[in-house]
Amino acid sequence: MDQPTRNLAEFAVSLDYGALTQSAIDSTVRHVVDTIGCAIGALDAKPAAIARSIAALSGGTPGSTVIGLEQPTTPEYAAFANAVMVRYLDFNDTGIGGHPSDMIPATLAVAEPRLSSGSDVLLATFIQYEVVAALRRGGFHRLRKRHVDQVQSVIGSAIGAGRILGLNTTEMANAISLALTPNIPLRVVRTGVISDWKGCATAHGAMMGVFAARLAREGLTGPPEPFNGIAGLCELVGLPAFEVGGVGRAYNGLSAIEATGFKPYPSEYSSQGPIALLLDLRAQLTVDRVTAITIALHWGGWHEIGGGQGDHVEKWHPTTRESADHSLPYLAAVALIDGAVSLESFSEQRIGDPQIRALMQKIRVVEDPGLTRAHAGELPSWPSRVEIVLDDGRRLERSCARPKGHPLNPLMDQELESKFIELCEPRMAMSRIRQLLDTLWSLAALDDIRSLTHQLRTI
């Protein structure tokens, strides 16, 4: 097998729960809390309803839970449906290599029918985050420029599921290969007009990761060199061979999951700082006096939400929720006009509002090389700067080195609870929300993960 496959498989199989620090365990619990809240908040979304309808057609014995679906289904369909919900609102965590909590539904889907403990789930989740971080260090961040997107999700999902299934090193290596070889997603999903699939792409990775791990457990083999072999991933995208080393190595003393941030706003992560800056400046102006707004970002943010990938028209004229939450001009205009960016900001009425559209045309998004340099490094900082020009010539400026929710500027437990409650209140009584939160915060002590998953069936 090639070096990345071997290193990832050996790490995933060898790490024990006892090696996790209490801080890492606590952080993993926090990410599961946030993930479940984001999923519940998206229950009524169109992609979520479609995913549940497909899952409902296939039963499972004992089966895996889909949130909001009373009957169990197969682990693959549960992983897909729940990950669609986790991802839909663009409210879940962001870290080194994308949105790693997209993989948590894969672990839960396999853990439930095996009657795994809460600590089993936490260990598998911790491993998933470390794997994604190691892949990024090994060069996976370069795939974005080769029009390939989020491959790490299917690999991490396979590894998390494989750890729950008790795979040995050879089986884990096969799970990695069976996940990677048939599942190379195109970055077109995140360019131009953003479709429903944006919130489903990593869910597909979760589903196929589960499938790969289950196949490997039954003895199915995959190509031994999926990364660096002849006609493997690197040759496909024209990159030099990957070297995945130091799996589990800390980032500034933080594990990968501790180095992953949370979102206070339901939008792409590079927008978190600018939104907060604009909300802070809003008290000093009236919107009708604004003549120009310039928002400076690091290269990745400009490329993703500021029109930097040849999609300027779509960013300044979004037509769908999926486009709007990845449009910094839209998010900035909503923040100034409404005084908030919330789940209600993405209704058809708000997206098409003439006042918002008019203000968007006064907004310019630029890449600042200084911010790009500041953002670089093992623990990105996500810096931003905002300048507003008023009709009397005044200029209002604010800058942000690390937005709220960044690992070094974290959301506290109470803030995470408030976010969770906000996401759940439209569907659940407060007593049930409290019961679910109590179970989630006690995850490390659960003998049987069904104490959590069965609560999710009747939401």
TrEMBL record:
<dbReference type="Pfam" id="PF03972">
    <property type="entry name" value="MmgE_PrpD_N"/>
</dbReference>
<dbReference type="InterPro" id="IPR042188">
    <property type="entry name" value="MmgE/PrpD_sf_2"/>
</dbReference>
<dbReference type="InterPro" id="IPR045337">
    <property type="entry name" value="MmgE_PrpD_C"/>
</dbReference>
<dbReference type="InterPro" id="IPR005656">
    <property type="entry name" value="MmgE_PrpD"/>
</dbReference>
<comment type="similarity">
    <text>Belongs to the PrpD family.</text>
</comment>
<feature type="domain" description="MmgE/PrpD C-terminal">
    <location>
        <begin position="265"/>
        <end position="441"/>
    </location>
</feature>
<dbReference type="InterPro" id="IPR042183">
    <property type="entry name" value="MmgE/PrpD_sf_1"/>
</dbReference>
<dbReference type="InterPro" id="IPR036148">
    <property type="entry name" value="MmgE/PrpD_sf"/>
</dbReference>
<dbReference type="GO" id="GO:0016829">
    <property type="term" value="F:lyase activity"/>
</dbReference>
<protein>
    <recommendedName>
        <fullName>2-methylcitrate dehydratase</fullName>
    </recommendedName>
</protein>
<feature type="domain" description="MmgE/PrpD N-terminal">
    <location>
        <begin position="7"/>
        <end position="236"/>
    </location>
</feature>
<dbReference type="InterPro" id="IPR045336">
    <property type="entry name" value="MmgE_PrpD_N"/>
</dbReference>
<dbReference type="Pfam" id="PF19305">
    <property type="entry name" value="MmgE_PrpD_C"/>
</dbReference>
